[in-house]
Specification:
Elements lengths: L1 H11 L2 H30 L5 H24 L8 H28 L8 H30 L1 H22 L7 H17 L2 E7 L5 E7 L6
Length: about 220
C-alpha cells in the first residue's frame, strides 16, 4: 500500500500528470461552453433542430479548446502547423461532432419529455455530454502522440543537448565513460519530468527563435 501511495505521489510530480490535468481542465472548460451554447440554442432561443444546435455549440467550443490545449496543455508556441496540428484537430473535432450530433438527434427523437420544456433541453444536453465522454480518452491519445506530444519529446532532447555538459561539470563526471553519461541523462529526464528544469523558447540576441534551459520548480526541503 505504501509502495502504491509513493508511486501515485511520484506520478503526480511528473510532466505527464501535469499535462493530463491540464487536458482535463481544458475539457471541462470546453464542455461547459458546449453545454451552455447548446442549452441557449435549443432551450432558450428554441432553434427547432437539436442537431443544428449541437453543431453550433461544438464549433464554438472547439476554437478555445484548440488554443488552450496547444499553448497551455502541451506548451507549444509559435505558428500552428497546418497538416500536423490544424487539420488533424478539426478532423477529430468533426468526428466528435458527427458522433455527438447523432447522439443528440437520437435523444431528441426519443425524448420522453414535452418538446420545448426544460427537461427536454436537459435531456438533449445529457446526450451531448455522454458522447463527449466516450471520445475523451481517444482525443488525448491522438493529441499526445501525433499532434502536440512531439513538442515534449523535443524538449527532452533539448535538455539532453544543452544541459548534459553543465551537469557533468558540476558533478565532476567524465562523459567519455558510459556510466556517468547514462547517469546524467537519467537525472535530466527526471528533472524535466518533475519540472525542476524546463525548456523555454524565446528570441536570442540576434532575435532568432532559440530554446533555453531554465530552472522550473525549485526543490523544497
Amino acid at each position: 500500500m505504501a509502495s502504491l501511495t509513493s508511486r501515485v505521489g511520484a506520478f503526480r510530480k511528473t510532466e505527464h500528470f501535469s499535462r493530463l490535468w491540464k487536458y482535463a481542465s481544458v475539457s471541462i472548460i470546453s464542455t461547459g461552453i458546449t453545454q451552455v451554447v447548446l442549452f441557449v440554442c435549443y432551450g432558450v432561443i428554441k432553434i427547432p433542430s437539436a442537431m443544428a444546435s449541437n453543431v453550433i455549440a461544438i464549433v464554438i467550443a472547439s476554437v478555445p479548446a484548440y488554443y488552450l490545449n496547444r499553448n497551455w496543455t502541451w506548451g507549444k508556441t509559435g505558428k500552428s502547423d497546418l497538416w500536423r496540428e490544424i487539420v488533424p484537430f478539426w478532423t477529430i473535432s468533426f468526428v466528435g461532432l458527427v458522433l455527438s450530433t447523432i447522439a443528440v438527434g437520437i435523444a431528441a427523437h426519443n425524448n420522453p419529455f414535452p418538446k420545448g420544456s426544460l427537461e427536454a433541453a436537459l435531456f438533449v444536453n445529457f446526450a451531448n455530454l455522454f458522447s463527449y465522454g466516450v471520445i475523451w480518452i481517444g482525443r488525448y491519445v491522438v493529441f499526445n502522440k501525433f499532434m502536440f506530444g512531439h513538442h515534449a519529446a523535443a524538449n527532452t532532447q533539448i535538455l539532453a543537448d544543452e544541459a548534459t555538459n553543465a551537469v557533468a561539470e558540476v558533478l565532476y563526471l567524465d562523459l567519455k565513460l558510459a556510466a556517468p553519461l547514462a547517469r546524467v541523462k537519467s537525472l535530466l529526464k527526471k528533472w524535466g519530468e518533475s519540472g525542476a528544469l524546463k525548456v523555454v523558447h524565446r528570441p536570442d540576441k540576434h532575435r532568432k527563435p532559440k530554446a533555453f534551459v531554465e530552472v522550473g520548480q525549485w526543490a523544497t526541503p
